[in-house]
Amino acid sequence: MNYMVMQDLFYIAVLIGLSIPLGIYIYRVMTGQKVFLTPVIGPVEREIYKLMGTAPEEEMNAWKYTLSVFLFSGAGFIFLFLLLMFQGTLPFNPEGLRGTSWHLAFNTAASFVTNTNWQAYSGESTLSYFTQFSGLAVQNFVSAATGIAVLFALIRGFALKQKKTIGNFWADLVRATLYILLPLSFVAALLLVSQGVVQTFGQYKDVAMLESGVLQTIPLGPAASQIAIKQLGTNGGGFFGANSAFPLENPTAFSNMIQSLSILLIPAALCVSFGKAVKDGRQGRSVYITMMIFLTAALAAATASEQFTGPVFKQVAASGSMEGKEVIHGVGASSLWAVITTAASNGSVNAMHDSLTPLGGMVSMFLMQLGEIVFGGVGSGLYGMLAFVLLTVFIAGLMVGRTPEYLGKKVDPFDMKMVCLIVLVPPLLTLLGTSAAVLAPEARSWLTNSGAHGFSEILYAFSSMANNNGSSFGGFQGNTVFTNVSGGVIMLMVRFIPMTAVIFLAGNMAQKKAVAVSEGTLSTSNTVFAGLLIGVILIIGALSFLPALALGPIADFLTIQ
């Protein structure tokens, strides 16, 4: 147990140490300042603007910014859908894999365009190399860049005074991709290849096993490059079906640490960028600390549950519940990954979540159900948390009888309508999707388990899809017409309804004039406010999901004791 604690403390220390300089770098990039990569990337950036026919200094209002997001994402969705349907006729397909069904293509295209990366298939048996690197990997970059772009639109809304514009989506998209995601992914991919992560266009290999005459097919592919961005962009979609529990995706303890750090690195750094952009580092620290409190509490709860509440076999020289976990990672690294991948909207796994203890699974489930705001997705996690900050400011204003203010801007009814869309759409779609699946006549045939654990499998699946996470308990059969269609629609709605609300919130904030700070102004950077923010988040999460959790993981825990 002491080793696990030291491992977690080391992880958090390294994460904080890396996120601070990266956050400053991201702030400089997204505000158009020169950075050390400008001499190399600057000419490429300018040529891309010429090709697109846009100027980075051309400002957009909220309507135009939203339209740009929808047009870009819609084009990506159509391209990926067609690529999946017709991959059998396209190159780089050494295994001769056929195109997918229409409903799986719809679900997968929706999943990757929305940065969810829910996978109702195994990559090595379903998708060609061409589909993986030209379709999925591309969306891993641009969906993450879209989240960063929308976040900075909101940040400009807070920072600007009496302006009708919030930046240029195309410039934000290009800068996030070229200066942030590509360089980080290049470094991460090289580190992963050094650890034995596969990166090849060669055919699958048949390898002789120890038993005489037995061959096993080893799937290969250009995996390392996609794994790097799947983690850094909080995408999570695995090149292989077993995701980062597969040895060719995650072969060593060092590769496991690289990927674990990559999951939270940019979301944590964006908190620092936020403080720099609004010219008040205390605001960024306050949000960062609040997220870190949630993360450490969840990590302690999940690790303790896996260590002490699961079945332990005396004949096995390992501590804690090792079911569904790789021996090389053990309970500690598996619990850490389960927490950070569901705190961020990443969704990759290095252990099978269906084998987590009931309380360990509940921690992962609840982190998603909070709205993926504990660091959360790249960009989307922070703008989701800022929506909760505004909600907390509004509630505090009602308590003291003052007009709520945040960062020198008064919070008006329109702002609160947008905040409600951001905060309430994910839990509403989670519960609607879960209830529809439970009522479906075929529901029992989709499950590996029955009873409370079977319900947990359904609840986890729709919590994952409706919060843009993408991880799965693993016992739920997702490749059905019902799940593919309903899940695809849910993923699109939960991504773009809140995102649209964020952009219009930004536009409304940008038009406001600054108000002077007075003695009665609520401080949003002290311990009291952080505690109030935590309380609001937990109350909304508990009110939304406690009954469902009671029917699922809580009942599962009580019935196996």
How does this structure look, described?
By secondary structure, the protein is an all-alpha fold. Helix content is 64%, strand content 2%. A two-stranded antiparallel sheet has the order 1-2. Strands 3-4 form a two-stranded antiparallel ribbon. Strand 3 and strand 4 (409-410) form a beta hairpin. The longest helix is centred in the last third of the chain and has 34 residues, at 527-560. The model has no long low-confidence stretch (mean pLDDT 92).
Helix fraction bin: 55-70%
Low-confidence stretches: none
- The counted number of beta strands is 4
Radius of gyration, whole Å: 23 Å
**Total number of helical segments?**
17
The SSE string, one letter per element, is HHHHHHHEEHHHHHHEEHHHH
Oligomerization state: single chain
Structural class: mainly alpha
Mean pLDDT, all residues: 92
Largest sheet: 2 strands, antiparallel
SSE blueprint and pairings:
Elements: H1 2-30, H2 38-52, H3 62-85, H4 102-113, H5 123-126, H6 129-159, H7 169-194, E1 205-208, E2 215-218, H8 223-232, H9 253-277, H10 281-308, H11 330-343, H12 358-369, H13 380-400, E3 405-406, E4 409-410, H14 413-439, H15 451-465, H16 481-510, H17 527-560
Antiparallel strand pairs: 1-2, 3-4
Helix pairs in contact: 1-9, 1-11, 2-7, 3-4, 3-6, 3-16, 4-16, 6-7, 6-8, 6-16, 7-8, 8-9, 9-10, 9-11, 10-11, 10-12, 10-17, 11-12, 12-15, 12-17, 13-14, 13-17, 14-15, 14-16, 15-17
